[in-house]
Amino acid sequence: MGRFPLLAVALWSLSLSVCVFPDTASAQLKQNYYANICPNVENIVRGVVNTKFKQTFVTVPATLRLFFHDCFVQGCDASVIIASTGSNTAEKDNPDNLSLAGDGFDTVIKAKAEVDKNPTCRNKVSCADILTMATRDVIALSGGPSYAVELGRLDGLSSTSASVNGKLPQPTFNLNQLTSLFAANGLSQTDMIALSGAHTLGFSHCSKFANRIYNFSRENPVDPTLDKTYAAQLQAMCPKNVDPTIAINMDPTTPKKFDNVYYQNLQQGKGLFTSDEVLFTDSRSKPTVNAWASSSTAFEKAFVQAITKLGRVGVKTGKNGNIRRDCSVFN
């Protein structure tokens, strides 16, 4: 959901030696976790997400990418939402997170406030779980599958810019780099290819792929795996020395719909990043791309499995976390 660069926005890098997260943490997650604590929590969150979605579509890729960036750094604990202070530069201000759209943060903070208006629910629902629910909701709102989410996470107790370094996928990654990074988080190569499909939504800044359309190599100024017409379109939208705020849709075909067109684009040389197109050009991942390009049902099933597994990464329990009163500030 990083390479999710602005969702890039799309959804991702790893220097993590090995992230071993305790099985006991993910074991506490379950569907309907809040049934006896805050019975209406999913409807409350969904209502806020719906309102945000009507205000701006950016809510969709921004929230999805926020979830990915959160889970891949210190586990799914909402540490990415913490604001920096004079004494601490938090995760959100790491260079790899600066392109995260504000609408993702805003969605979670507003949903938390709405949940806490209910006396029964006040200070009983974690920001990490609210982000998880909101992510499921934006996927459904953009035409993707709806699925039951596992809940029961606590919010993390630390957030530092340094903790982000080497943890998120980069747009220049090859298949080996992508696979090893995801494996360090307990995710398979198939999970990685499925989660890359989130690039069917959102957008990226020109700087993230300029190396593919200008000065790729001495022999080929343009990356030869790019469709020539698509490359020309990208050059027109991203001239050299372009305004750094210019953003390009990750999916040039159906940019506002969660679908399997991402994989069809890869077949046509229209993957925006090297880390996208490599999924088709590498013979090890190509069969999966072809399978999902021809079957939206198969893709959606794999995506739900992968994002559910992603939601189990680094879950905080007991003394390792708490429930924040304000998602952007430690208690």
UniProtKB/TrEMBL annotation:
Entry binding sites for heme b: H199
Binding site for substrate: P169
Catalytic activity: 2 a phenolic donor + H2O2 = 2 a phenolic radical donor + 2 H2O
PROSITE patterns: PEROXIDASE_1, PEROXIDASE_2, PEROXIDASE_4
Cofactor note text: Binds 1 heme b (iron(II)-protoporphyrin IX) group per subunit.
Broad enzyme group: oxidoreductase
Protein name (Swiss-Prot/TrEMBL): Peroxidase
